[in-house]
Design goal:
about 675 residues, alpha/beta, Alpha-Beta Plaits, TIM Barrel, 21 helices, about 20% strand, binds calcium ion
Length: about 675
């Protein structure tokens, strides 16, 4: 697969979910941060409030029960214990004198070794920032006044109704809610030379943070809404992407897999076949004459047939194999095989199965096989090889299987080379005109010549026309080459005429590809007239096959060419699908009998009989006869006897370069 094609497919398949995933990530992060900040700030606020109110209660408790001398100890203890019972947030009270333990309600005393500034807990903005605290290792905290002056904030004390406050705390405590935060603090109150410590376990319950909970709920709801939105978006993208992929890989005619899917799957299978555990063969299967089938039965029926082919083929595909409909009536199969015989048998069975689809119509298939070699992973190239193998079979209506071989590969490489280099070769005049003389049968003297092209390649050397003419005929370059040959011949004839040398008519080949242009005769005239040469020294050889293209153009062109004074001959008469009919309609000057009549041992007599009849017929139609490919004296004698006009063949001379021809013939 070409790189740009591969890129285009990847671009089509690329999932565009990243923006959504990124959005989801950003939104979740933002909300998480906002949520965390809200929780922290709200909790801090609640804690601060709690801290202040508990401080007030504690200071009142101390005020009420502990006097400077701590004289009425018993009584004070009783009172303190009673009040502690009322509030589950006050857990202990103790009294220290100069750091020495004096009394504790439950035997607990604070550890005075670690003191931390109050501002570290609640920040510098705190309303009670002038208090220090000591945090004990067991998370109990001691609050002490920063400047050592243990006086209470009167405002706080005034605001609080202790009994009420204690009963509120008691109620809250009885609700059996689990606090969400619990903080243990020792408040320190100075009473004369004593220090009273009150241990508070400050609880924050969920109802303390209703606002916080509301904000949290909203945040959670928002996050959920966004998450749902993004998840829906992501699923939407994924499903539309799946649809694109499906369209990309589905063949519309059969509804099955198409060539892209095949290339993807095939490449995967070949890549996974490490150490070549399995032998793979690429098969190109074509139903021959599909177009005729569609013409007879309709395009819809044709496509239905292809759909049934696909379903049938699918049944023949095993695990680790692949199959797809390519185009028209072409299918690709990547099959595993053990031996070539087994593979051929399997292909034949497949063909039988396909034929069984239309019991009343015999279908014909052409099959190309390319056995996959080690390290060959390019599915398109393998398929192309299989197709090349099949295309060499032609379109004969028979079931046949052709294997791709090294020769074909060489041919492919050669074709590519020729196509790459032909323009340059024409510009550099690497194509040379060779002339092969035509001798008169009676006098055995030169009476004409045929111009035949040769490619003198800078690295390949001498290249005969059969190695490049068919390629040029396929790619259309033959039009330029023939023009070049005609021009070179006209130039040469003009030169010889000017030099007063002996000049004979020289024929040039005109490929059937020219007969698509209606002004062909004018075009030829234009090329020749550039050199001021009489038209009678130029002969044009057309092949009979041109007759099967656009008959009208051919007939008109031949007529015009003859009117312009050119000699027109029909080349290769009798080769291939020859039809005498063409002679009836085509008025030409010369008939060139194909060399095939003079080949082969068995058919000599029959061939000669036909030749003599053709010569007779041509004479009656007022045509001259040229026999081609004459190699022996017997053939020359026979042709002379039959009144053949001219003879072209190795017996007299092979095609030769212009200078050699000039030396040999033009001085006469
Ligand atoms: P063609 O036009 O039928 O040319 C006759 C071919 O038969 C030539 O092959 C010639 O060398 C060969 N030949 C002549 N006498 C004998 C003989 O006694 N024995 C054998 N075995 N062969 C003989 P060549 O030159 O290889 O050309 C092959 C074909 O290539 C030509 O067949 C013609 O169709 C094509 N061709 C050659 N030059 C041109 C050209 O300039 N334009 C076009 N369109 N086709 C050309
Ligand atoms: Ca010819
Ligand atoms: Ca010929």
């Amino acid at each position: 697969m070409s790189k740009s094609k591969d890129k285009r497919i990847r671009r089509l398949k690329r999932l565009r979910i990243w923006p959504s995933v990124l959005g989801l990530f950003v939104i979740t992060t933002i909300f998480t941060v906002v949520f965390a900040l809200t929780i922290v700030t709200s909790l801090t606020d609640v804690m601060r409030e709690k801290f202040v109110s508990n401080y007030e209660i504690s200071s009142q408790l101390v005020n009420r029960h502990i006097d400077t001398n701590f004289s009425a100890q018993e009584q004070a203890c009783q009172g303190i214990l009673k009040d502690i019972d009322l509030s589950n947030e006050i857990q202990a009270v103790c009294v220290l004198k100069n750091g020495t333990e004096v009394w504790s309600s439950n035997g607990q005393y604070p550890d005075l070794s670690v003191r931390v500034a109050f501002t570290e807990l609640f920040g510098p903005e705190s309303t009670v920032s002038n208090y220090d605290m000591v945090i004990e290792e067991d998370e109990q905290t001691i609050i002490v006044k920063e400047d050592g002056q243990y006086t209470f904030n009167d405002q706080w004390i005034e605001q609080i109704d202790l009994e009420k406050e204690i009963s509120r705390l008691e109620k809250e405590g009885n609700k059996e809610y689990e606090p969400i935060v619990s903080l243990k603090l020792w408040y320190v109150m100075p009473v004369g030379d004593l220090e009273a410590f009150v241990l508070n376990d400050i609880h924050v319950y969920i109802y303390d943070v209703v606002f916080l909970a509301a904000v949290a709920c909203m945040v959670v709801i928002l996050v959920i809404v966004f998450i749902i939105y993004y998840i829906i978006t992501i699923f939407g993208v994924i499903s539309s992407q799946k649809r694109v992929t499906k369209v990309l890989y589905t063949d519309i005619v059969t509804g099955g897999e198409n060539r892209l899917a095949f290339a993807r799957k095939g490449t995967k299978l070949l890549k996974r076949n490490r150490r070549n555990k399995r032998n793979y063969a690429m098969i190109h299967l074509r139903m021959e004459k599909y177009r005729s089938f569609c013409t007879c039965f309709g395009v819809r029926e044709g496509e239905e047939l292809l759909e049934r082919f696909y379903r049938t083929l699918k049944k023949w595909i095993r695990r680790k194999e692949a199959m797809a409909h390519y185009e028209q009536a072409d299918f690709a199969l990547l099959l595993c095989y053990t031996t070539q015989e087994e593979l051929v048998a399997r292909i034949e069975s497949i063909e039988q199965a396909l034929n069984a689809i239309t019991p009343n119509i015999k279908l014909y298939f052409g099959v190309g096989v390319c056995l996959v070699e080690q390290r060959q992973k390019d599915v398109e190239e393998l398929y192309n090889n299989a197709l090349s193998a099949r295309s060499l079979l032609g379109e004969d209506a028979e079931n046949r299987i052709a294997f791709f071989d090294v020769e074909m590969k060489k041919q492919q490489l050669w074709e590519r080379k020729v196509e790459d280099e032909m323009e340059r070769a024409l510009k550099n005049k690497e194509f040379k005109v060779y002339l092969q003389p035509k001798y008169s049968a009676k006098e055995e003297k030169i009476a004409g010549a045929e111009a035949l092209v040769r490619w003198i390649h800078p690295t390949e050397g001498f290249v005969p026309p059969n190695k490049f003419i068919p390629i040029f005929e396929k790619n259309g370059f033959i039009l330029q080459l023939d023009d070049y040959m005609l021009e070179e011949v006209a130039r040469q004839q003009a030169k010889w005429i000017q030099e007063g040398k002996n000049v004979v008519p020289v024929s040039v080949n005109v490929s059937r590809a020219h007969f698509t242009r209606e002004d062909l005769a004018e075009h030829i005239c234009g090329v020749v007239d550039k050199f001021n040469v009489p038209h009678s020294v130029i002969e044009l050889e057309l092949t009979e096959s041109a007759f099967f293209d656009d008959k009208e153009v051919l007939l008109n062109t031949v007529k015009k060419l003859r009117e312009y004074g050119f000699i027109v001959s029909m080349d290769d008469f009798g080769a291939g699908y020859s039809s005498l009919n063409s002679l009836k309609e085509l008025q030409i000057d010369v008939l060139k009998i194909d060399a095939d009549f003079f080949r082969g041992e068995d058919s000599v007599d029959r061939g000669m009989l036909i030749v003599s009849e053709v010569i007779d017929l041509a004479k009656k139609l007022d045509m001259k006869i040229v026999a081609e490919g004459i190699e022996s004296r017997e053939q020359v004698d026979f042709l002379a006897q039959q009144n053949c006009d001219l003879i072209q063949g190795y017996y007299f001379a092979k095609p030769m370069p212009l200078n050699e021809f000039e030396e040999k013939y033009n001085h006469q």
